UniProtKB/TrEMBL annotation:
Gene Ontology annotations for the cellular component aspect, listed alphabetically: plasma membrane
Protein name: Phosphatidylglycerophosphatase A
Native source organism of the sequence: Rheinheimera riviphila
Cellular localisation: Cell inner membrane
Domain called YutG/PgpA: residue spans: 14-151
Membrane-spanning segments: 48-66, 86-110, 130-156
Amino acid sequence: MKQHPFNLTKWQHWLALGFGSGLAPKAPGTFGTLAAIPLLYLVWPFGIWWAAAFVVLGTLLGVYLCDVVSRDIGTADHGSIVWDEVIGFAITMFAVPLSLTNLLVAFLLFRLLDIAKPWPIRWFDRNVHGGFGVMLDDIVAGILACALLHSVWLPLQI
């Protein structure tokens, strides 16, 4: 069994790995996205301002985490670093009512955009580096997924 390069006794590594979800042997980004769901259930009931604070502070924290952990392990954007997926999914769900159906549609949409990386996501992924670069493609994927949810999916629910 191959040993991972992370030091789980460092809080930065533990958070960057999405509480360990990024160590899944297959599809770590998918497991990182799933790790966001309990956080949404903790924060979203407090209202949109708490959700906004979570997204902003989580993004700032993520830039730091992704930069520090990438430097620690000597790899620019290791697949097990999934805090970017956590925040990307929180952005996707911004101002979206928490329901099983909404979570499922949002999850599929975010993962599709994050994996396929259509323009402009691919451009950011290839051209912006460091901790900010690791976060930015998932932020853009989250914004696009959120826009699609609000403009196409949620109107169908009324």
